[in-house]
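Question thread 4412

I'm putting together a teaching handout and wanted feedback from people who do this every day. The idea is simple: show students a protein as raw sequence, then show them the structure tokens that encode its fold, then repeat with a second protein so they can compare. Below is the first pair exactly as I plan to print it.
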Amino acid sequence: MANTFGIKGASFGKGDVVDFKKIDKVKVLSHLWVYARRHMVRICMIIFFVIVSNVLALLSPVVTGKAIAAMIGPGKVDFHLLGVNVGLLGVLYVSSALFTWMQNIFMIRMTQQVIYDIRVDVFSHIESLPMSFFDSVYKGDIISRISYDIDNISSCFSTDIVHLLTGVITVTGSLLMMILINPTLTLVFCIIVPVTFLFARKITKYTRKLFRLQQYKYGELNAYVEEALTGQKTLKAYCHEAASVDGFHKVNGELNDSGYKAQFFSSIVMPVMNFLSNLSFLMVSSFGAVLMLRGKLDISNLSSFILYSKKFSGPINETANIINVIQSAFSASERVFSILEVKPEAREEETRHLDSVNGSVEIRDIFFSYQPDKEIITHFTLNVPKGSHIAIVGHTGAGKTTIANLLMKFYNYQKGEIRIDRKDIQNIDRQDVRDQYGMVLQDTWLFQGTVMENLRYGRFEATDEEVISAAKAADAHDFIMKLPQGYETVISEDVTSMSQGQKQLLTIARALVADPPMLILDEATSSVDTITENKIQKAMDLLMEGRTSFIIAHRLSTIRNADVIIVMEDGKIVEQGNHEELLNKQGAYYTLYNSQFADV
């Protein structure tokens, strides 16, 4: 499903083609300023330290020139004047270094706090996004933005911004001092400066697109790796290791090419800038020597001027390189902040809360589509009394899971009504709606934590006794106690010490601990063997007891005892009744049932 979330040029939906239009720097800077302005005291201190350290450094060429002038001639040295100036140089260098160290300390602290805030805001925002977002993006690309791209911003903040500010002060101060020493020599020096700026502007304009492409390819690579690692069993089962490596070579090659081009053209900057700097130095030295011979410039001023010219050229050379890094950081910032521009789930301004729920559900003439031109659910109507067990069956793509998504308010339907206890869920807070359901899915998601923490996921205030009681009811207690630390054993989603059936029993126990009035069971037994299925089915029967339950199933053996079975085709109910009634009709359900049990 192709979808574009975020600002232009930073799309990351599946199937999207990256758009390399000009980065909206004003928008990116406005986002960064939101975080930076929280640290105005630190910013002011950093600026103060930068100015002081650079002003002290700018005084050193004048003092150096005076120290050189202390050598009056061959064998004649004014040791007092030389000693004073050398001592003064030492004070200037030590003081400048101390203020530079202070600026770095403050900058590092501020940067880490800014990056911390950005990560928190991005992750918190991701948690507020609708399911449509997660269905439309590559998870690896999002991970790349949260990790690599934010690290890129951090590197730029902590060093390059300060270097850029330092460069501006040094260049401005050096130029003023050169003008004060000799305006004519300054004009000679400045002949090369426009050429330097034009070159820097030209090369950075070209490398901007290359760095953006590099960022995009990093996202693609992460997405590919994440997909390959997640599907390792399937990949190995089909002997696709070689094909997977070939695919990685392709994606990695594209990243390598884009990275090479970006780094190659940015690497041209320093040699050219150094050449222009040396050319400028040659012109200044030659013309300065002529002025000295004519008595219009002394050795002290010439020495100071040459040192200032080197100070002027140094930041210019560095700035051109820093601008390339900043271009990369702008691209990274654009990718990160594009996530923050994705609209979260619509705010529900005038919704009501549910105090207590009996569990009756009414679905009235629902229409729903993921895309405007393709309806998935049409004219869907269903009445579910309190405590009923409703099974939903049908071929793949019939709309079964979509109904579960609508019941949970993961998506909003376009027409119709869904009511809980005669209350339209459109007028009920989505959190309240979701609190009424426990979900047991085919994918047995477990997070990094202890067994006890996983079982408490739906109700953190549950006591140990309640959790253990739920685990016993779900027939999970015995195998939990065989784990190394029992209920305190640390597990994760990809734990290999448990079978699929055991993981599923944990998710059923988790739902029992949560104790919701209603349940959604989506293909909960589809990935286990028959013996394990029977064990899980017993646990599910206990879980469903007294609760309104929606059971989505492909295995029809698991829903024979449902109060009502509805058969869906193309988003509509084509049949409805209990197991025996539907078999006697010899319609769609009869065909489905016989397709599974014809050989039995």
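The second pair follows. I'd like the answer to focus on this one:
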Amino acid sequence: MKTQQIILILLSTLVSVSLSAQDRIAGLVQAMDGEPLVGVNLFIEGTYDGTISDTEGKFEFEVEAAGGKKLVVSYIGYTTRIVPLENQSLSNLSIRLKESVTSLNAVTITAGSFIAGDKNRATVLDPMDIYTTAGSMGDINAALKTLPGTQAAADDGRLLVRGGEAAETKVYVDGLLAAKPYYSKVPDLPTRGRFSPSLFSGTVFSTGGYSAEYGQALSSVLILESTDIALEEVTGISMMSIGLEANNTWCAKDRSTSAGISYTNLAPYYGMVNNRLDWVKPAEAANLNLMHRQRFKNGGLFKMFATGDYGLQSFNTSDGSDKPVYIDSEGGNTYWNGTYKMSLGEKTALRSGVAITYDEDRTIAGVHHSSENELTIEGRLAFVHDIKDGIVLTYGVSDAFTKYDQDYKELKGTRRWSGGIEDHVAALFVEPEIKLSAKFAFRPGLRYEYSTYLKRSNLSPRLSMAYKTGKNSQLSAAYGQFFQNPVNDYLKYSSQFNFEKATHYILGFQTGDIQKRLFRTEAYYKEYDNLVSYQESDNPFVPVYNNGGEGYAKGLDIFFRDRETFKRTDYWLSYSYIDSKRKYKDYPSTVTPHYIAEHTFSAVAKYFVGAINTQVGATWVTASGKPYHQPGDVNFMNQRSPMYHDLSLNMSYLTHLGDHFTIIHFAMNNVLGQTQHLGYRTVPSMDGNSPDKLVPMHPDVKQFMFLGIFISIN
């Protein structure tokens, strides 16, 4: 009996001790600005004891003997805190969490860049956007021209960005140079980009202030990020009013291979419509492409992309007299790109690759006959190192080799010329991105280049930064110096040149969500130095060249996109104002170049009609007149061409042919049938004594219509 009483007393004591050791932990968890945080995870380190905060940020739970233990407080997007519970008022804890500098809501550096892809919240155009933008006709560059900062150059087809010529924008595929991203340009006709939007999952279009990882571009870079390993096998067949396409994708574990072929012939179409040009051989071209993706056991990813094309065309055009000028163009292009990425540890990644471009063209323009071939090989090795939370360092080396040759002769004449260049442009770059907080980030960069042909080097400092002013808004700024070799048309005569130079200053503001509404605006100023100038010499083939040219470009870009206001409707508006002047080439004074329109406005709208599975789209582009010089006028570039207007429409009908998903697509440019003045072309006199002629430029056809049937076979 005595023993039982002792046991009962001991049990009672243990229970009372246990009950007295149950500590109540309670309090409030908030963000640094005092906003309550809902669903925060709170637990005792090394145990399962804990809870989550409620809708008011409050929490409460009990734990045995809290003294000496630690409370772990974690929440997605915020830095985890560990709170010692020693000497604390356990029932009235006040905990504040700091937003992580790498959170989804953290600031992102967007100065000068429109970014499309899953990597960034500032997505602007994805591949489907490009295909369904009326007027683009499936061309990446045409779709990008609906964004601010670009010129509506319907006579060119290449990207002209913030006062820069086409050669001042470079195109990269997976970080490697695509030296000839456009089909050959001939007088009076626009050209198209070589790459299909469907090959790429992301697009970074920098209108200025771009990363130190890239160079040799005074104005901008367009970076195309190719798709990763395909997940399903599919066969595609396309029948179009201008040709045929077919492609197939094969898949296996950790790898995929795709191949495609296309053929284009404009002869049937031009046979049905009125054409300003007298076509001898309408444009005809064939293209092959191959893409392979493979992931290895070590996590490395190899990508290979190869494409080749061959095309020809010939026509008669006017030189302002009764005698037509014969234009004939023929050539081929091959591009190969191979990249390899892998992890070198928990915090370091390797990016490497090689790109090869070979281009060969033959052109006849009146009495002038030239043949050109160019080989470009670029190799790149880069490392990305995650130093610590909020600091990522990118550094590496690259080398671009160029071999260019040209032969010229005057048909039925005696004048001949041959020349060429060989050049290596070696580069080193380093660029840390530092996020001091979730609200402020900056990215200083430095790039060094050396040209073996020019025997000169340059050092390019870059800096971009962003400050978050609200949940979905931020200010951004960028500064940088950018250098570029003169184009081959100048270098083939001499190596006694300096690098051309442009200095960028950019200030921007962005607010909203691209999935709902996004507004962004940027003001910029660019200063040009060392531009190539020349004057005639006794040798008609070799003018006197120098780097005495200069200029500037300043302006304002505005972009607004809305996917929320109207049901099943997506639209965006773009406006650009630019004031740009240059004294370069053979310009006798500082004037606005011939390719600059002071004001450009575009509106793009898309609406999906669910009842009939059809998307309709419209694009309106208008631009003020461009300057041109009237031969004999005492004031250089004193004239202005008429305003440019274009309304384009398209329609895509989604259906099935048997079990195969099918899209029937129709598009039409210049629906209103307006006479579009693209500017004027000056034609030098043949004898050197008569005055130069001024020839107005118009599209070869007033309206262009496209019909295609695209069938997917799984």
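Top answer:
Good format. For the second protein you could add a caption like this: The first strand starts at residue 22 and ends at 31. Residues 30 and 96 are 5 Å apart (CA to CA).
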